[in-house]
Amino acid sequence: MTLNILMLSTLFPDMSRPNFGVFVERQARELASRPDADVTVIAPLGLPPWPFSLAGRYAPLRALPRKERWRELTVYRPTFPIIPKIGARTNVLSMTRAILPLVRRLHADRPFDVIDASFFFPDGPVARRLSRALGIPYSVKARGADIHYWGTRRGTARMVRGAADDAAGLLAVSEAMRRSMGRMGIDEDKIRVHYTGVDLDTFELADQAAAKAALGFDGPVVLSVGALIPRKGQDLLVRALPMLPDVTLLLAGQGQYRRTLEQMALDLGVERRIGFLGSVPHHKLPRIFAAADVMALPSESEGLANAWVESLACGTPVVTSDVGGARELIDRPEAGRIVDRDPEAIAAAIRAILADPPDREAVRETARRFTWAANGDTLLAHLQAIAGRD
Fold first, then answer.
1. pLDDT score, position 98
2. Whole-prediction pTM value?
3. Buried/exposed 253-292: b ≥16 CB within 10 Å, e otherwise
4. DSSP labels, 5-54
5. Which of 37, 110, 173, 238 is exposed most, by the fewest CB atoms within 10 A?
6. pLDDT tens across 90-141, in order?
7. Residue 269: left (phi > 0), alpha (psi -120 to 50), or beta?
8. CA-to-CA dists, residue 387 to 62, 114, 171, 383, angstroms
9. Separation CA 390–CA 380 (nearest Å)
10. Digit-coded pLDDT (tens) for 313-350
11. How far apart are CA 379 and CA 387, in angstroms?
């Protein structure tokens, strides 16, 4: 019997933000490709009240269709009111009120069997309310900041914990995340580890010399992929650069922290050896990974970074901090180094890899277990179990 799944995600790509939640979208497509699963995606859009909603940054969101076929998926994009920067705790109630009529209508036409919430906040508490309204079970996935930040923040921690307690099942992106949730008092027995996937046909080995030539580089290249925010630790890489005199540092990502990093590079005299790439389209990342000798991401916290897996799939070793599921992925010397969040330690690890680079095929081998097929198998089995279909 086909399982009818309502997938709720506030992080999902659209025409104006093609990289936004791309991994959630890929997971949804994998699940929907199974003959025994039907998936309907609700991806709510938060907009401030008029006249603030007229601001230029919100124009692309206002223009999006409220229902569309996104690749193989039917995606609904209802809007809900937000108060930018200070209104996070109110988002659960406002989102629920905005989307519940749509959910009730869809459920009346064809009843859902289970709700799959992609993040712990605000998706998890909203799924909890929808579950009560419809009388069906729900699951929530923990990915990183949704637990480490919203799960500890005053005003939202109780909602995160309530969503965890009432869920029929929970998912975590790594075993380390599962343990973190347990330390918060969440029942570990109902948490299933659900690793991300990587498209091994897209993120593949390529000629490094040709990739460097295409991008105009002829020396060592260190790449960092992630939003330019303090938590990702790009400042540590900039501070390490004076200790890596021949290295070019490429930062793929965008964010307001860029101004701070640019000023830091100027102060350290390394501005000519840093390239700010902005938000790189996901399908163009493989050629940049191919040109890199090392992918470095010394984050303060992570679940299991997709950038780690994609880098390894392209044969590029990783230097990262001891956070999240790093040890579950960087589990052999060829995969890279786990280091302290210290510029000298980071520089030493990068120098060691540059001096004795691992075989790129051996690096890629680390990522072969992270397939989207395995991701889809685990997710479908999990949802079938909590819906009583196993």
1. 94
2. 0.90
3. bbbebbeebeebbeeeebeebbbbbeebebeebbebbbbb
4. EEEE-S---BTTBTTTTHHHHHHHHHHHTSTTEEEEEE--EEEPPTTGGG
5. 110
6. 889 999 999 999 999 999 999 999 999 999 999 999 999 999 999 999 999 9
7. left
8. 35, 6, 15, 6
9. 10
10. 999 999 999 998 999 999 999 999 999 999 999 999 99
11. 12
Residue 283 DSSP symbol: G
Dihedrals φ, ψ of 379, to 5°? -65, -45
**Single-letter amino acid, residue 167:** A
* Contact indicator for 351, 345 with CB cutoff of 8 Å: no
For 153, other C-beta atoms within 10 Å of its C-beta total 14
Buried b (16+ CB within 10 A) or exposed e, 16-31: eeeeebbbbbbbbbbb
**Are 174 and 378 contacting, i.e. CB atoms less than 8 angstroms apart?**
no
Q: Are strands 67-70 and 73-76 parallel, antiparallel or unpaired?
A: antiparallel
Q: How far apart (Å, rounded) are the C-alpha atoms in residues 237 and 259?
A: 15
Over residues 170-199, mean pLDDT: 94
Which amino acid is located at 347 in the chain?
Answer: A
User: DSSP letters along 317-366, please?
Assistant: -EEEES-TTHHHHS-SGGGEEEE-S-HHHHHHHHHHHHHSPPPHHHHHHT
Delineate the domains of the chain, giving CATH numbers in brackets: 3-197+371-386 (3.40.50.2000), 208-365 (3.40.50.2000)
DSSP state of 167: -
In order, the DSSP letters of 246-260 are: T-EEEEEB--TTHHH
Tokens of 130: 């929808």
| 8 A C-beta contact, residue 250 and residue 224 | yes
- Residue 363's identity, in one-letter code, is V
- For residue 25, CA distances in Å to 174, 227, 372 come to 19, 18, 12
Tell me the one-letter amino acid at 102.
L
